Amino acid sequence: MDRRRFLQFALALLILLLAVGLSGLIISRKPELKRKPRAPYVPAVKVIKAVPQAHQVEISAYGTVIPLRSGTLSAQVAGQVIYLAPSLITGGHFRAGEVLLRLDPQDYQTALAQAEAELLEARRVLAELEAQSQTAREEWHRLRGDIPVPDLVAKRPQLAAARAKVKAAEAAVMQARVNLARTEIKAPFDGRVIEAKVELGQQVAPGQELARVYEVREVEVAISLSAQDLRWIDVPGITSPQGAKARVVVRPAGVPVVWSGRVVRAAAQLDEKTRLLTVYVRVKSPFSRRPPLLPGLFAEVHLKGHLLKKAFVLPRKALHYSEKGLWQVYVVDKSSRLHIRPVEVARLEPDRAVIVSGLNPGDLVVLSPLSGVTEAMRVKVLP
């Protein structure tokens, strides 16, 4: 029994040794693999050819439509309202010179009649005194010869007082006529009523607000521009005598409506918080079309800027900001080498960059995003 176990153990050991030897033989005769050098990574990039062109600068901004002129109609005299024009309601239209409101004129007609009567009386008194003065002077010269006539004899003080009363009476008549005319309130311009604050039969007092109105001949859009934007457009009194043309786009019912306008002026100072300057774009005849250009509408304004005769207009993604704080682009040469090129950017637009120097016609500018860019690195230009 022991001999049998010994033979089994010896056989197992022999098999193990043969397996180990065979494995070593196989490993020793395995062909050696040669390592190939790793090819350097060459990024593939999309490029665009730089082509100089004339570029019309356009500045876009947003603002609110406001009336050119607006104001308050107020009573200048007291009285009861006896007439209201049909147009004197909120939203009503009126013409320049139209009678919008009339107060009861009876008291003012009476006052005018009294003032005219007092004027006639003052003139009568003055005429009598002038006649008396003439008679007294003639009698004095007949009796006293060339001796100067005393003031009291010639009634000069009385004449001065009478003339003063005539002037006062004339002023009273003029004031009575003005007050009578003020019982009619006329429209100062073609306009619309923002809010009416008076009713027929109402008693009004001097200075009382009757309505708020605005002129419809012209409106303006107030927009805010940066100093960089002002460089490219004409603003009267700031950069040029005549203002830049503008397109004003509004969407009163979701549909864009375009109006033509022009920059007419700028605010007297910059906003202290934003450092922006408010510029006003004027649009004529805002009610000549339907829908009209109503005050309060939010407007998109496109200003026609200066013309750059030779510029490179590239997609914004072609532009990069260097660690030194300078703009630069990546240019690929004929041997597929990349070069870092500093450029001068005249203007940045939402999706474009306008470059005026640093590029040559025909340069291939990289559009693809890259990391770890080095000068003269090799790239592969995609078709």
TrEMBL record:
Major site of localization recorded for this protein: other
Gene3D superfamilies xref list: 2.40.30.170, 2.40.420.20, 2.40.50.100, Helix hairpin bin
Any matching Pfam family: BSH_RND
Subcellular location: Cell envelope
GO molecular function, one term: efflux transmembrane transporter activity
Xref: SUPFAM superfamilies: HlyD-like secretion proteins
InterPro entries in UniProt: MdtA-like_BSH (IPR058625), MdtA-like_C (IPR058627), RND_pump_MFP (IPR006143)
Keyword annotations of the record: Transport
Keyword Transport on entry: yes
Domain Multidrug resistance protein MdtA-like C-terminal permuted SH3: 311-368
Limits of the Multidrug resistance protein MdtA-like barrel-sandwich hybrid domain: 72-212
Annotated TM spans: none
Keyword Transport attached: yes
GO cellular component: efflux pump complex
Family statement: Belongs to the membrane fusion protein (MFP) (TC 8.A.1) family.
Protein name, per record: Efflux RND transporter periplasmic adaptor subunit
Organism: Thermosulfuriphilus ammonigenes
